[in-house]
# Entry
Amino acid sequence: MMRAYLIKGRIDMNWIEALYKTYENHLHRVGVYKTKIVRKGSKNESQRTVTPLLPLFHGIQNSHITITLDGTGNIKYARVNSETELPTIIPVTEDSESRSSGLAPYPLCDKLQYVAGDNIRFFQPEKKRDEQLKKLEESYKAYLAQIRKWVKFAPDNIPLQAILAYVEKGTLIQDLVEMEVLFLDDEEHLAESWKGDPKEQPSIFGVLKPASQESAFIRWEVVGNYDCQEVYLSHDMYQSWMCYAPTLLPLKGLCYISGEDQQLSGKFPKRIRNAGDNAKIISSNDKDGYTFRGRFIEAEESFGLSAEVSQKAHSALRWLLSRQGYFDGEQAILIWSPELLTVPSPCESSIEWNNYGDSEEVDNTSDQIAVRFSEMIHSGIKGDKVWDVLDQDLRDQKVMLLSLDAASPGRLSITRYLEFSLSDYFANLLHWYNHSKWLQSNMWISHEDSKKEFLGSPSPRMIVTAAYGKDVDEKLRRYAVSRILPSILLRNKIPADIEKQCFVRASQKNSLPWNEWEMTLGVACSIYIYNHNQEEGNHYTMSLDTERKNRNYLYGRLWAVAEVLEKTALDVTKTSRPTNAERLMQRFQTRPFETWTLMESNCLQPYQLILKKNMKGLKNYYDSVIDSIMNIFAAEDFENNEPLDGAYLLGYHCQKVELYRKKKEDDVTPDDGAEGSGEE
# Structure
């Protein structure tokens, strides 16, 4: 079991216990379907169904066909489910929830292979070799045997009896064909695909694509005087299975989470990150390999987890990931509070934190806290002031970070687990925000009413893109994000190699697309001030510091003036090409004195002449700024040709922003009244 050791001491809770308590705290949400807005505010805004918090001993599957029966087991009608109706809560056993190639029917809803007694007749003939034929027969028999035992346990469950009565007739596929829900080919077998006019394609092929009709998953409705005709939504049916399922568990022993003797779980759920996810966090089926060799004889000797705790913890994890998880390929990161659920996430930039008070449940406590957190950000409250903002009863609420990644197709590893009190979590986030605040340019903001630029902190995704480019290898990106998050949440420095990569790429202006370089520059400045502002003599801000004598900062200022001067002259002559400052920026970083001497003596003079002829006042202003910077330089610093560090980017960025701000506000007026244009 994993435990987290934090800066301010140990918090006694592990990830399974945290998820189990989350489930217990939100029992009123069990079985409730919710939708989530995706890409909110963009042209591609859409809705998707969030995986619900599941009842005990239940799972969720995409069901393609709904069959409606009467109370005596006669079929009334059937229909193909729409895309939004596919997710369906179904009863599961330990074997069926973890099944791969073996026979393990679901107790109630399942594929045609299990529920259709006439599957042999209608499945494709090439699949009727002896082994496959036997498997189809055994699948149907196993399903019947399992549901019969359930009916025997719950004889008063009329809908369940109706379903059993219908399945025993063995005419399911024939009935669906007659109702034009399923379709046969010329040889009277289930058609693998639609061969006719695409405009006339039946809906079953649309929801199953690319799978064939044999993969159709069936769910049930039973009309009558019941709590709910939709069996898959019936709380009475949920409860019936929850009472029966524990009787099927073979093991009993000490649960390491509850501390009680309970029915133990021998197999553990999959489909954690999504419906097609076959990886498990806990597994003990490798009895022929090296799993237990030299340590244990049986898996139960290493770990005891009750079926109830396992089911609830995995259900809570699925629900939370679907509701608020951050996904990057096979990596899934979850930040949550067992009681409050939603908290601001370090996976997002500070501008995205503003959206946390904008959910459908506007009156709940987590939204109120999110609004407070947003206010703390914009009012500049320091981390040590969080205690004054949070109510006493909220300060010790727990916040967890759980990071998952696929170790192999069937194994899911926990790459990081951290726990915090809510007050410590907010204090650490505010520390990151207050010490990495810089002007950012986010190349991914797609909201029509959002600005590309914002003053704040970059997201881990922005940092990784700044360091390695937008086409970075997926594994490298996931690994880098997993290293950045602890720096944000534990007040550590951003790893030095990532800082260096951002700095190097920010100096390669001429080799990057404009929007990517703008983002890289802002990120590099943020990381530098976060990592180095605490060092003696350093206190950099977004405002231009005209008194700072740091060699790196001053050289950055000089380069900004040179670039803006050239750019303004090119605008005057309506010439579109990179400036010398842009082309030579990387060389300037490695050999500043040599490159500046070349720039001043050869490259700048033609552009100064253009400005002298057309915008003399502006030319004089740029010259005066260069002179003022040169006057601050110590002679030995100016002539030092050693490479510049990240502080030069701060001086460069601040000086450039100031120059364009002055031009925009007409603080400097050219002699002839002409205006120099800024960068696009």
Notes: The longest strand covers residues 398-408. The two ends are 54 Å apart (CA to CA).
